[in-house]
Specification:
Layout lengths: L12 H6 L4 H12 L38 H14 L3 H19 L2 H5 L1
Helix pairs in contact: 3-4
């Protein structure tokens, strides 16, 4: 494989997502994807052997946050019944209802009121 150039390019994630991949690079990536792992040349990648300063999960951020919320017993019973009809767990059903309600309410609140 060719040696990597030392020219550094800074891109946002949006830039990466919208980047047009040239046909030659697409073909090279297709060939690489079909190649067995033991045939891929990784000799230019330094071996990492010292994990002394490593921190597990440093950049991990869960997409959801768990909280406890108190709901009325009749509301929970209704959610359980409706979720069974829809074929989903009741907590997932409640989460979906809450999400839809928040989106609907956000449209009703003027933008300047949300900033404050």
């Amino acid at each position: 494989m060719k040696k990597a150039t030392t020219k550094m390019v800074t891109m946002t994630m949006e830039d990466v997502r919208q980047r047009k991949i040239p046909k030659a690079e697409q073909e090279r990536l297709k060939r690489l994807a079909t190649m067995p792992d033991d045939q891929i040349d990784t000799s230019d990648i330094p071996e990492l052997t010292d994990f002394a300063g490593a921190v597990r999960g440093r950049f991990y951020r869960p997409l959801t946050q768990s909280i406890t919320i108190r709901l009325n017993v009749p509301d929970i019973a209704a959610a359980r019944q409706l979720s069974k009809v829809k074929g989903m767990p009741y907590q997932t059903y409640i989460r979906g209802l809450l999400h839809e309600a928040l989106l609907r309410e956000a449209k009703l609140v003027p933008a300047r009121a949300r900033k404050g």
